[in-house]
Model the fold of this input.
Amino acid sequence: MTSQQFTVARDDLQQSRLIDIVLPDANNLPADGLLVKVDRFAFTANNITYAMLGDQLKYWSLFPAPNGFGNIPVWGFGDVIASRHPNIPEGERLFGYFPMATHLIIEATDVSKRGLRDGAAHRQNVAPVYNAYTRVGGDPAFAGRAGDYQALLRPLFMLSFLVDDFLAENAFFGARSAMLSSASSKTAFGLAHLLHTQRKPIRVIGLTSRGNASYVASLGCYDDVVTYDDVSSLATDHPAAYVDMAGNGDLRTQLHRHFGDKLVYSGRVGLTHQDATDDSANLPGARPTWFFAPDQIRKRAKEWGPGGIDTRFGAAWTSFVPMLDRWINVTDGRGEAAVQQIYLDTLNGRVRPDQAHMLSLAA
Ligand SMILES: NC(=O)c1ccc[n+]([C@@H]2O[C@H](COP(=O)([O-])OP(=O)(O)OC[C@H]3O[C@@H](n4cnc5c(N)ncnc54)[C@H](OP(=O)(O)O)[C@@H]3O)[C@@H](O)[C@H]2O)c1
Done:
């Protein structure tokens, strides 16, 4: 049996290739091994960041591929079709991190009623969240459209939730407004939703491209929408915070020069821009720093105790989901051509922000 994998050239992300990997048969799986058929997965700009930072943050090591190619990790669903673990039956449905592929072998460990981890040696040098799978069979919160929202948005909304919490915990570093770049992105509008509903009187300002400005304005979670070519019009009479979603170096430089010392926080969370430059060291205003989600998770896990993050995140998610029927349209794509097209469209910034893509390579 073979697994088809949609791989990309690690040193030239415009190149992709479908490859066949021979899998062991059910009897020859590793101890406690599961053969999982990858059913469907979400693809957004965040997955491009995984590829851009593949070497630095070890994303390429999660699902190794041969000859300078790499598997970009995606969030999605898979069904166990063969199992050597006594407590995981065939037919079990899992939600978690997968390659864009037809199959994945998982070495099940830490199996509980709610989930398991992949204990494969090559996966152990990344944050634990990337090796965790939730058992979601029969759970309506992970079925149908609700399930698509989980795959498309839940991991992104965790970042939105953590940045909102971090800014509030630090009293916005004295800022009276928060500017979010890539304002049309799911991560940004998740954060804008939280700021808008919970952190008044902080003004939430969406920075976006000209073509997406009307979409961003229609969301209703930004107080102001300003296009990238118009940031010099932003008022500088108050301290402001900046959350940089896409890593556009020119925009960062422009904002720092425009606000000077009034820019009291400059946090970087993503890297979608392929021409990203880094001249952060010499800019006026707060020094740009990477926001590292696992650090905030570790801190809050300690402070809030068992279940503390889950409870708060659950409440935030519940307030967010009702917005989504109006904010995004989910479309399904199946097969190599569809996967390649959405991959390249996302890589090259051609996906409309109201379109959210669920993909599959499964036959
Ligand atoms: N650090 C973390 O843990 C973490 C977690 C989640 C997300 N993020 C980051 O947040 C960002 C948004 O991710 P998402 O999945 O929410 O995005 P998404 O919903 O797919 O975002 C779509 C929007 O992002 C911008 N964009 C998309 N492709 C682009 C490209 N090739 N070049 C430049 N801009 C592009 C455009 O926004 P505009 O027209 O508005 O500019 C586009 O409308 C990513 O950079 C991601 O890495 C980081």
